[in-house]
Each structure stands twice: as structure tokens, then as C-alpha cells.
Amino acid sequence: MSILILLALLIRPLRAADLVTAEADLQAGKADDAISLLSAALRANPSDPEANNLLCRVDFTLKQFDQASSYCEKAVQLRSEDSNYHLWFGRALGERADRASFMNAFSLAKRTRAELETAVHLDPHNGDALSDLGEFYKEAPGVVGGGIDRAEDIARQLDSVEPPRAHILRAEIAEKQKDLATAEREYKAAASGAHPAFGWMQLGSFYRRQQRWEDMLDAVKSGQSAAAHDRHAGEALVNGGSVLSRAKRNLDLAIQLYETYLSSSIKVEQAPAFDILIRLAKLRQQTGDAAGAQRDRSAALALAHDYKSAQELKP
Q1: Is residue 119 within 8 Å of residue 91, measured between CB atoms?
Q2: How far apart are CA 225 and CA 272, in angstroms?
Q3: Is residue 2's pLDDT more than 80?
């Protein structure tokens, strides 16, 4: 066996292990560690689709959406049949569209729709892709392919894939149409299904928008109770903290929800630990805990030294 072949056999499992570790770091909110591993992987093989996709997702958590879009586009070019690669490219394009000038936003929104539609076409059972496409159709104007009727079609597809998300999408459509009774009923239906913590927090967010403060607090507390028995409830804890923080009510409970999330093993990339630490730091500042705020800011920077929100937060 030649030395080159032997080296290839030795390097291949190491690279694969590094990508697994990088994804675990991404889920745990260890952005700097993930970037270090993925940058090394791409130096060794710039045409690695998974490394490009993962680096896109790390940049996405850091809100560096132009850079994220570039890596996700490369992943799609390298492996065009992967539904999730198109989903993440669509998400990055969508964030860019939200921040772009009018003319650029128009073009980016059309590209966003195309990527999300491709993701669903490639895997009609991809719940994340269906939910994102439904959200796009609900919010986007018809000139870029949006429309309530299209969003309702997606809700019907979600019925057989992830029923709670179908209820959430229908609730959002009803709320957009000012049909508050239907919206409330659909949010409650989501809270009674699988993974109820997420549905409870969505219901709490609805009550916040309606300024129904007691109902909001009851829903968040119900979500907190449900989360204690749901290993998929990480994002729900964060949503509950966000509901209370935005309402500027019961900030001690908001802090508790964020702390529970950070101390758990159910962290997810949609709620990166460094971002939650900054949210905590801001809440501690509001409640007079300057030392705690500084501690959380330092912890966030230790995980993601380039995170702009952490850099900009004044000690």
C-alpha cells in the first residue's frame, strides 16, 4: 500500500469526525470552535458540500447573512439534490432580502421562494422547509410569489407531516386576516398536540400581541411545565423568555427560562447559546444586576468572539 493511500485512509475518518464535532458545536452554540474545524476542513477540501453547509449555518447564527449565503450557495452547487441545503440557502437569502434595498429585496425574495420551493420539491416531508415556505407565502406579496391561498395549501401538506406546525401556520394566517377567534383556536390546538411546549409559547406570543397579559403569563407557565417533560422543548423555552422580555413583564421568569435553556442539553442552533447569553445580559441590566450582565457578555464572547451584539453591548 502506498503512503498516499495510507494517509487518505487515515485522514478520511478524521475529517468525518471533525464534521460531526462541528455540527455538535453548532447545536451547542460554540461558534468559534465550529468555525475552526470547518475552516480547516475547507482548506483541505474546498468542495466538501457538508462543510460548506455547516459553515453557512454557523454564519447564519452569527447573523452574517451575506457570508452565510455564499457558503450555502456553494453547498447547493456541489450537492443540488439535498433538500436541507436548499432550505438553508433560502433562509440566508431571505434574511438578506429583509435587509436589502427595495430593488435588491425584490430579486432576493424571488430567489428565496425558488430555493424553498426546491427544498419542498426534493423532500415533500421536510417539515422545516414546508413551514418556511408557508411563512414566505403568508408574508410575501403576490408580485414575488406570495399569497394566502398558497400558504393554506402548505398548511394542508403539513397536516400529514407535522400537525402542530399546520395549526401554527393556520393561526398565523387567521391572525393576519384579523380572525382572532380562529387564530386563538388554532394556537390552542398546537398546544394540545405533540411537543406542546412550543404551541403554548406561540399562544403566549399571540396573547402578548393582543395585550392579554394574564392569559399570556398563564400560557408561558403552561409551556414551562410542558417543557420539563419534552426533550425537544429547547426552542420553546427561549420563545417563552422572548415573549416575557418583549412584553416587559415578569422578567424574573424570563431570566429563569433562559437559564434553564442554557443549562440544559436541549440547545439548538435556532437559539444559539451566545445569543441567549446576550439576551440574559440585557435582562440583568434591566433588573440591576450589572455583574451578572458582564459575566454573561464575557461568556457569549468566549463562544463567539465576532458576535456583533455581544461586542456592542456596553458593560
Answers
A1: no
A2: 22
A3: no
Q: Determine if residue 178 is left, alpha or beta; phi over 0 gives left, psi from -120 to 50 gives alpha, anything else beta.
A: left
Q: What is the dihedral of CA 41, 47, 50, 51, to 10 degrees?
A: 30
Q: Give residue-wise pLDDT tens across range 234-252.
A: 999 999 999 999 999 999 9
Write the single-letter amino acid at 233: A
The answer to whether 128 touches 90, Cβ cutoff 8 Å, is no
- The total number of residues shown for the chain amounts to 315
* pLDDT category of residue 16 using cuts at 50, 70 and 90: confident
Phi, psi at 210, each rounded to 5° = -95, 0
pLDDT surpasses 80 at 8: no
Of 103, 29, 111, the C-alpha closest to 69 is 111
Three-state DSSP string of the chain? CCHHHHHHHHHHHHHHHHHHHHHHHHHHCCHHHHHHHHHHHHHHCCCCHHHHHHHHHHHHHCCCHHHHHHHHHHHHHHCCCCHHHHHHHHHHHHHHHHHCCHHHHHHHHHHHHHHHHHHHHHCCCCHHHHHHHHHHHHHCCHHHCCCHHHHHHHHHHHHCCCHHHHHHHHHHHHHHCCCHHHHHHHHHHHHCCCCHHHHHHHHHHHHHHCCCHHHHHHHHHHHHHHHCCCCCCHHHHHHHHHHHHHHCCCHHHHHHHHHHHHCCCCCCCCCCHHHHHHHHHHHHHHCCCHHHHHHHHHHHHHHCCCCHHHHHCCC
Phi, then psi, of 34 in degrees rounded to 5: -65, -45
pTM of the model: 0.92
